Structure to design on (762 residues):
């Protein structure tokens, strides 16, 4: 029996990262590959309390509105300084990307992404057969100068997508100028900017930068990185007209989210004193881990590797000169360490010398050991 | 600011049922409209125990595989007499419909549905711009005779969808002959049959009928109706090649489901003694409620209404001769009762005299009062 896939499915690039998970879950492999937040930093006890509180009311276990439970929309709106009508709760912020792509993008419509790209975003736009235009990211975020040149030459994207803080995978944070310019171009040329921001709260050095301004911006956020991935609570903040469009589509996608999970999340996000302390602890720990990783890169790979010093988030983007990191990966796995080769995130550029290293998942000693193994793999290449 | 919707979004019919929810949630309205299982029959205490057990291990709060947590796939496979590799866990079975439509249907591809149709399925196929062919359902389920005639005349669907047990909204259960014939036609003409079965366990009279046989069948199931909707656990059972295709698409849709929720579900589904008792209690209660509803139809609307006696599930499909039930609805809401007019489920037929009444949501006394109000509304029409 041979079942042909749809053209939409055929146009999606497989995620090397997800495929790697199978390997990295093998015992003995230290994974610098995944985007998993630290399991030992998930506030399990507080979440268990939230679960018991939510379940006390059986209506927490019923269906709920496609936009989300009112109490959770309000808690998120408060956090985002937005109105509840601007918030739609999704099954992780990946679902927001997927629903926005389906609601706003026709086959052949242009979508602009950064290069390297967050692969989940690329896949969502590929799944609706968008025409992808990738602009090489700069140290100040989305390449707004290049974007403007292309817009002047007639490029008319429906959407420009970026991860504004601690970009996955490049680690770059968009400057205030980039954000303001992107908003101006969105107004001038009539596209929507998607500001994908799962990592913004995880800043451990430097000052936060205001989000992209204006009313042609859709902001995506997530509870996965600050509370727990299994809550599967993400959200979009958008003009109510777009919330209405996504709400309508969501009925066919999965009817609604989990009232139980959203009530737990509302409890956690509304406990502002606890939340602030918890996020402070997370940032402090991630700073320790980022330093452990970069110290290890110095110690074991000094002179052979360059990297962008992480200011937050979960990833360190690095470059091994004259090494094809896709070829390095099998050797690294053999030594018991995993990472993601740059090419997994490349759209138009090659990025074959780059690699993404996560410092979030492992404790400091294992980060050091992982880098030591990586150096051994490189020696054996 | 005017943002154009995608053609896909424009082609989705709004769900009158979901739109009605806003009205039916007004205090004082008795809802015979929604597809909500009885909140008072949700096993809250046992679910709370499952939540505490699952959360004891912090890995329950991490990301998980796109196909689902192994333990939950195994529990579902056991329930379905299938292999775990045939199971993919989705965010409710609605997500399975949506992902299957995206993975298997190209714009313009033909999909066959029953008329009346489960609106969520229709929307999922509309969202990928399928060509919809609706065949009037018979008392024995999908109209396989008409389907065969159309296939002989050259119809080549990718998918034939049906709700096999206690069809939503018509209440029909497909006969053994219908199921076998559908499987034969699937083999002969190369389409896939989707056997959507959220209600099969809720049989309170008559004998269960074996599922559609063969290897061109995708079976969808759900924990929403037997455990709780907020678990958001549904599943598909399909050949591993199709599981693989949907897994790949799911990465762009929402990455993965909730490990927490799936571990809770695995706990509940594996507790087979408790589960059997719980489902028996549900069936007994739903039988009482179905009888309360049809007794009330006799009492308050006798001679003016026909209905199909429910054998299970949650719905009673009824017909008021020479009444346009879409016109009746505002009068009914004014009297404080809600139902769904037949036209909400119609594809090619008119079904203007039909209505869907849910007996699952309300206790017996309120079902009687709801029907009394419906009769009053009819008198005032």
């Amino acid at each position: 029996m041979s079942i042909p896939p749809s053209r939409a499915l055929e146009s999606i690039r497989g995620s090397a990262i997800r495929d790697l998970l199978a390997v990295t879950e093998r015992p003995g492999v230290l994974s610098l590959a995944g985007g998993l937040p630290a399991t030992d930093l998930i506030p399990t006890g507080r979440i268990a309390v939230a679960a018991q509180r939510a379940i006390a009311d059986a209506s927490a276990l019923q269906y709920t509105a496609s936009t989300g439970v009112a109490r959770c929309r309000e808690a998120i709106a408060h956090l985002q300084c937005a109105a509840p009508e601007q918030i739609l709760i999704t099954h992780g912020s990946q679902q927001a990307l997927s629903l926005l792509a389906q609601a706003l993008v026709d086959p052949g419509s242009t979508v602009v992404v950064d290069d390297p790209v967050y692969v989940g975003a690329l896949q969502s736009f590929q799944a609706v057969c968008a025409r992808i235009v990738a602009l090489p990211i700069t140290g100040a975020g989305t390449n707004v100068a290049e974007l403007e040149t292309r817009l002047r030459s007639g490029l008319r994207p429906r959407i420009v997508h970026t991860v504004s803080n601690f970009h996955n995978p490049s680690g770059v944070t968009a400057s205030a100028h980039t954000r303001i310019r992107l908003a101006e171009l969105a107004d001038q040329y009539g596209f929507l900017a998607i500001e994908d921001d799962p990592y913004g709260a995880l800043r451990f050095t430097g000052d936060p930068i205001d989000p992209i301004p204006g009313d042609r911006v859709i902001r995506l956020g997530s509870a996965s990185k600050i509370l727990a991935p299994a809550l599967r609570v993400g959200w979009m903040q958008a003009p109510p007209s777009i919330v209405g469009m996504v709400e309508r589509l969501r009925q066919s996608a999965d009817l609604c989210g989990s009232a139980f999970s959203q009530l737990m999340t509302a409890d956690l996000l509304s406990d502002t004193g606890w939340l602030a302390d918890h996020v402070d602890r997370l940032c402090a720990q991630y700073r320790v881990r980022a330093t452990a990783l970069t110290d290890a890169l110095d110690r074991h790979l000094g002179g052979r590797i360059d990297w962008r010093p992480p200011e937050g988030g979960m990833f360190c983007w690095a470059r091994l000169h004259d090494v094809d990191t896709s070829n390095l990966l099998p050797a690294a796995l053999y030594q018991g360490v995993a990472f993601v080769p740059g090419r997994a995130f490349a759209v138009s550029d090659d990025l074959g010398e780059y690699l993404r290293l996560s410092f979030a998942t492992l404790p400091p000693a294992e980060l050091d050991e992982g880098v030591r193994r990586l150096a051994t793999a490189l020696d054996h290449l």
Q: What stands out?
A: Residues 86 and 240 of chain A are 5 Å apart (CA to CA). The first helix of chain A runs from residue 7 to 10.
